[in-house]
Write a structure and sequence with these properties.
alpha/beta, seven-stranded mixed β-sheet, globular
Length: 567
């Protein structure tokens, strides 16, 4: 019989795991329904020590160790299986150790810079970070000690990650991101959003609210659900199967409106490079964050910006809606209720995927064969995407909701454990040789032909099938493969009993740093007056060798050049 999964979604975590789990267990008791999985939409802040805290991208006055380190050591254990994507306020050095994903603590799994997992018959995709046009096309040029702009740019989503996600052919049930898809507000109650957040008005008018990268992915992937956070407000929308949110394709995202076809993207690395910011664009003082126009609760969204004007994009969009989108379940401020949506995507074994032949563009690439090349689509005919964004974990804020999803019989068997996704492992094998390691703009390889009307750079089904055959033979030879419970701590932590509010002297309460008080001073869930006790003992390394990444790469048959360079 079909299985019903109770999936909890949380907005921005900001290190408040104790309170999130407490709220979750309370609601579980109220409804007498076991929560099967918790999904956190970014700003997780997996801070283990003073080095992680120093690498976290946020105003200094907000820097506190928090309570995550207790989960890292095993002093506390997550009561619910938890997965999360990265936001723009993370310990970037810790995230970089697990670029392909991995356990940050027992029962808590990071989905990597991008990734796809299975859980209980659901197929879940995720992409970390936020969109910044001045870093989007670049490779991963950041190097320890991650000073200045590198501390922020590690959390800026890259075109390479979009390229990997575009290769997905099989339908997804859920996609998780930190940043909203650009223009998704037009498919919900736009007026209601602007009443809550009036300072979004200009971005909404210009069509610039949210990430064009995520809009491109939504346009192609069209999962049953899309969950986000970042803007610290609850918002729902329904993106219909016939709607179009982003038609410009790969080259419609800045800076790809410029011609990069002749730019070398060899991925070479200068042996003397540490923190790269080449080119003519100049960055001001990265610590000078002006927040005079922001409210207290929005202060931690501010980031230093390069003075680059984003070009206006011509979008074929509906006018903003004035009616409220179909309501999702809100268990935050009312009696818990539930809603069931049928999930008909990847969990349906006999789903017929649309296939079509694409004529290659001879101006961009010489076709390798005269035979027609096929490119399957992950769309499910007639299925809309339900969008839900949530707030951050603070009192009287809408940061936590639970939905019920029915999983058809064909996918309802097996344990409720995280599983690797065969197609995603095949995509990694295809794309990993092109992982860019410097500031040169990423240019898709010639083997990924520009196809369809919007010129998406896609490997053919035949290319993907060859890698999928290898994955099936070498990884999935005995059926499904569960993610191993192979977490081991690799970094030092503070002594037991260290308060969450300790900043190790990194937090500065400068009166010029915007309005409002530091997180440790404004109360709320678990935050007390800031404590500036110093870190004792040797300062931890910036990057630690993580055996999870090594084991994963050996299993998939790939080399991890990123962490090898950083070590």
């Amino acid at each position: 019989m079909p299985r019903t999964l109770n999936i909890a979604i949380e907005g921005c975590c900001h290190g408040m795991l104790d309170n999130i789990y407490s709220q979750l267990l309370t609601r579980q008791k109220q409804t007498n329904k076991k929560i099967d999985l918790l999904i956190i939409c970014g700003d997780f802040q997996a801070i283990r020590n003073v080095t992680d805290l120093g690498c976290m991208s946020c105003p200094d006055k907000y820097k506190q160790i928090g309570g995550f380190y207790r989960y890292y050591t095993g002093e506390r254990v997550a009561p619910v299986p938890t997965i999360f994507v990265g936001g723009n306020h993370e310990a970037g050095n810790h995230s970089r150790e697990l670029y392909y994903g991995g356990w940050v603590a027992p029962n808590i799994y990071f989905m990597g810079n991008s990734g796809v997992l299975k859980f209980g018959g659901l197929r879940i995709g995720g992409i970390s970070g936020i969109f910044k046009d001045f870093d989007y096309a670049k490779g991963y040029y950041e190097r320890p000690p991650f000073r200045g702009h590198s501390r922020s740019s590690m959390h800026h989503a890259r075109s390479y990650e979009a390229f990997k996600m575009l290769q997905i052919r099989q339908p997804l049930d859920i996609v998780v991101s930190h940043d909203w898809p650009q223009n998704i507000e037009r498919y919900g109650d736009t007026d209601g959003l602007l009443k809550k957040k009036p300072f979004f008005e200009k971005e909404v008018e210009r069509g610039e609210l949210g990430s064009p990268l995520n809009a491109l992915l939504l346009e192609r992937l069209r999962p049953a659900w899309w969950f986000s956070a970042h803007l610290h407000v609850r918002f729902t929308a329904s993106f219909g199967p016939q709607e179009s949110i982003f038609t410009q394709g790969w080259k419609g995202i800045p800076p790809y409106e410029q011609d990069l076809s002749n730019v070398s993207a060899s991925g070479g690395l200068d042996a003397n490079q540490t923190d790269g910011m080449s080119g003519t664009a100049q960055i001001g003082n990265v610590d000078e964050i002006v927040m005079s126009s922001l409210s207290d609760e929005e202060a931690d969204l501010a980031e230093p910006e390069l003075e680059i004007k984003r070009p206006r994009m011509e979008l074929n969009l509906p006018p903003p809606k004035h009616d409220i989108a179909p309501a999702l379940i809100d268990i935050t401020d009312q009696e818990p209720t539930s809603e069931t949506r049928e999930c008909t995507g990847a969990v349906t074994s006999d789903l017929k995927q649309e296939e079509h032949s694409i004529q290659t563009d001879s101006t961009n690439i010489e076709p390798a064969t005269t035979n027609p090349v096929s490119y399957s689509t992950p769309r499910v005919s007639g299925r809309a995407t339900n969008f839900l964004a949530l707030d951050k974990c603070l009192p009287k804020r809408q940061f936590l909701e639970v939905i019920e999803i029915k999983v058809p019989d064909s996918a309802a068997d097996g344990e409720l454990k995280l599983e690797y996704d065969p197609e995603w492992l095949a995509i990694l094998r295809l794309c990993n040789p092109y992982l860019p390691l410097d500031e040169s703009p990423f240019v898709p390889p010639a083997q990924a032909q520009a196809c369809e009307a919007n010129q998406l750079p896609l490997f053919s089904d035949e290319q993907l099938d060859r890698e999928l055959e290898w994955v099936t033979k070498n990884v999935f030879r005995n059926g499904r493969v569960y993610v191993p419970s192979n977490f081991v701590p690799v970094a030092p932590v503070p002594p037991p009993g260290t308060p969450d509010s300790v900043s190790f002297g990194l937090a500065r309460n400068d009166g010029n740093r915007g309005r409002g008080r530091g997180r440790g001073q404004r109360g709320g869930y678990g935050h007390n007056q800031r404590n500036d006790a110093p870190w004792t003992g040797p300062r931890p390394y910036f990057i630690n060798a993580n055996p999870q990444t090594d084991d994963f790469c050996k299993m998939v048959g790939i080399i991890d050049p990123l962490t090898q360079l950083l070590r």
